[in-house]
Amino acid sequence: MDPRLDQRTGDAVTLTQAPVHIETVDLAVSTVRELNQALHATDDGTSWVVDTPAGQHNIAVGIDRDLDLVVNGHVGYYFAGMHQKGRVTVHGSAGVGLAENIMSGTVHVTGDASQAAAATGQGGLVIIDGNTGARCGISMKGVDIVVGGDIGHASAFMAQAGRLVVCGDAGEGLGDSIYEARIYVKGTVASLGADCVEKPLRPEHLAELAELLTLAGRTDAPTDFRRYGSARTLYHFAAVNAAAY
Amino acid sequence: MTNSYASRGLRESATFDRATINDIQRAATTGIYDIRGWGAKRALPHFDDLLFLGASVSRYPLEGYREKCGTDVTLGGRHALKPITLDIPITIAGMSFGALSANAKEALGRGATEAGTSTTTGDGGMTPEERGQSRHLVYQYLPSRYGMNPDDLRKADAIEIVLGQGAKPGGGGMLLGQKITERVAGMRTLPVGIDQRSACRHPDWTGPDDLAIKIAELREITDWHTPIYVKVGASRPYYDTALAVKSGADVVVLDGMQGGTAATQQVFIENVGIPILAAIGPAVAALQELGVHRQVQLIVSGGIRNGADVAKAIALGADAVSIGTAALIALGDNDPRYQAEYEALGSSAGFYDDFQDGKDPAGISTQDPILAARLDPIAGGKRIANYLRVLTLEAQTIARACGKSHLHHLEPEDLVALTVEAAAMAGVPLAGTSWIPGR
Amino acid sequence: MCGIAALQIRDVGLRASLGELMHGMLCGIVDRGPDSAGLAIYNDPTLTPAGTSTVTVLNAELTPDALAAALRDALPPAVGVTVTVTGFGETTLINAQIGTGALEDAITSILPGVQIAGRGEHAAVRKGTGHPLDLAELYDLRSATGSQGLSHTRMATESAVTAAGSHPFTVADDLCLVHNGSFSNHATIRRQLRAEGVTCDSENDSEVAARFIAWCLAAGDTLTTALEKLGSVFDGFYTLVVTTATSMAIVRDPIACKPAIIAETDAWVAMASEYRALAHLPGIESARIFEPAPGVVYTWTLDSTKELVTL
């Protein structure tokens, strides 16, 4: 999202308002510690640009402000970990654990994300335009994830709540031991994990899918997707299921 | 009892004793392994096999009640800007709200605070009752991340990254449906009443190289204020301690196989891991080799019952101990006054270990509101504080007798072992000799 | 537990920059393993001159000059063999115009029991304890040239922080292995290999993998097949990179928790534990970048054909 636009209406900021000041941090000069400290101390409504991230880890973790942040380049592990409130965009790719345990707000990566993207996320929206590695949405607890490309194996393992939308293909073992999260895949699924089954795509699902695709700025047709979720056969221990535990 | 059988000429098999026969029959009937709470129940080499060498002529004791014997401990000073200082080196171990009732959690917080020490959350998040009543609260960071929340993370006085626990090193968690009430399920984002499984590995990192990055993330989120502990179940304590230090931990928490659990397979509890007696020495050796002994603190747990255990653990090189099962007993777990109810559950006071069932007559390991109401958190807190005071006074008594002005001045040379096994495991001489087996 | 960075250069014009590029890659994996490191450089004309064998020994008890003199005496006095011995800290590199086996025999006759950490006609292996970037200076990594290279930074898990425990493990001519992760049944496989007559130098888990692959290759397997067999025999978590005189192979275990990222252009193929180790490579913006799929063996040879086989 363009930080120069009004965040609520999406309109251009009118001339009667003061121009938005954009704080620029070059991580070739400043440290990740300095950036994070500044992001933790800043006010709501601020705008930030980060240059030269060079794949460093733990950039922009623990944000708890209604701010806008744009990163130009690739980021390492745990980018925007435990994110709250703000809108964050990476023009590049992200390493392991992108937006892990995100609570709210939006994290958008224009490239690929590595393993465990949005792992254990409790809320908010994570958009990845490219592909993700393994374990995308592992143990997700309410986050919404939209992936433009493919996702790796063991994605949505033990996914508890939230929606995972995949516009490409899904790897082996999708949704193994899934609880109440909902998965939508447009492409092929290499295999479903234990207790994950295809489910009918009813009108309410098409509606929520359309909404998520729109939020992610995508034009895919909701009707091209299939829905997967829990068969709920592993919710209670039973000897007959011993092989699946 | 046994004698009456013997007098009739009946002989019980040592290999297939009655408990074993019952286990086999139970397995054949149900087709699924036995799950229970508590820790290892088998006899294990323990602190009982160590004795202190009190002062006489060659060394001078300190006068009890008058001459100072310090008990404070500071945890987390290696990297954290706000280390924790506790009045006593005995902390309350992590036990989840979910496994325990809210009243029990509150009582633990109250008791710990009154005694000047810390308590710890568990797999399931931080409750307001617990945070409110705990002056020093350690927030566990577990594979499941149930209820993991950056707001609570920032409220924590320390963060404990849990890799394992003594009852089940290498295993995940488990909470059966009876305890997944609406509140517990809500905190964990789970359907009410399901049998909840927790993963054994963290979802977004594996191995010490990635742990180092994870620790750095938690430090960044908390602006480097908060001490970071790494908890492991005792199995390969030398390597696990060394790698926790290399990964950047401020504190290593080492839980021996006697450490308790809310619900784990019995076969796991009784057969995986090593006793705490055997685990402390290798962990301390790792800290010493890395030059960080007493800079990176070592907290040990698993079978701490009295002040002698506290003193022995510290003499072997620990900085503090943690109590779990003992704290529950202090709160009223297995209290004989509930004997009739324990019998009705097929158990008996002193034997009850079905913490997973949620039917605890003492109102501790339950989410049943009627049972939970039996535990008054204020009275329970007093009992915990009393017990912690006794542990501390007992440990001080022993330390003074050994001529120590602080519990941390106890050393392995103050100890001897009663058995060859304990001597070898603890690395102290067999009593009356200078022989340490294996050295 | 460690960092890995590997580079195979197809564009002959870029091979003069191998060391410079590898140095940049090493900088990106230092944090993952700060206690020791190692390098293998293939086809650097200074380190492995054409027509010579190169053997690496660790912690030699003789100075390079003394060792060279002793070797000249020990080698058969035929056809004027040139012997070059260069010290790099704990590593000593020995070149001679004879076969690897004969050179190894001569070395062990002078230094009985010495740890041999590298051997071959194309690969120069150097490794040691200390900060990886200090070691890179000691080895003058930036000046290296050649066709491919492998680097590893180590955070030791269950074996000692020593030069011998550092990666790569080179247990057959020009065969180098680096590992990130931890095997959980290597003791049994070590016993099985010993029963087959294979000698192991250490209790290190990664060495067992190197021995296993060398054993498979000696029995006639391709590198791909050997790694497939490894996948069916070894338990544990691993990202492995294995290089030979002409090939580079990458495989992750079927669960694939340990990180790996591959980038490929017409000019080169590179692999690292993290993207940051690849960020400086020329043409990275347009490279095909992907994470290796679990349990799949990826192999590249210098004629740039790629095999892809699922376990």
TrEMBL record, chain A:
InterPro entries: Glu_synth_asu_C_sf, Glu_synth_lsu_3. It comes from the Bacteria. One of its GO terms (molecular function) is oxidoreductase activity. This is Protein glxC. It comes from Cryobacterium luteum. The lineage of its organism: Bacteria, Bacillati, Actinomycetota, Actinomycetes, Micrococcales.
UniProtKB/TrEMBL annotation, chain B:
The keyword GTP-binding does not apply. Gene3D superfamilies: Aldolase class I. Residues 82-332 form the Glutamate synthase domain. SUPFAM superfamilies: FMN-linked oxidoreductases (SSF51395). Residues 111-121 have a biased composition (Low complexity). GO terms for biological process: glutamate biosynthetic process. Keywords: Oxidoreductase. Residues 111-130 are annotated as: Disordered. It holds the Pfam family Glu_synthase. Transmembrane segments: none annotated. Belongs to the glutamate synthase family. PANTHER family: ARCHAEAL-TYPE GLUTAMATE SYNTHASE [NADPH]. This is FMN-binding glutamate synthase family protein. It comes from Cryobacterium luteum. The lineage of its organism: Bacteria, Bacillati, Actinomycetota, Actinomycetes, Micrococcales.
TrEMBL record, chain C:
Keywords: Glutamine amidotransferase, Transferase. Pfam families: GATase_6 (PF13522). SUPFAM superfamilies: N-terminal nucleophile aminohydrolases (Ntn hydrolases) (SSF56235). It comes from the Bacteria. PROSITE patterns: GATASE_TYPE_2 (PS51278). GO terms for molecular function: transferase activity. InterPro entries: GATase_2_dom (IPR017932), Ntn_hydrolases_N (IPR029055). This is Glutamine amidotransferase. It comes from Cryobacterium luteum.
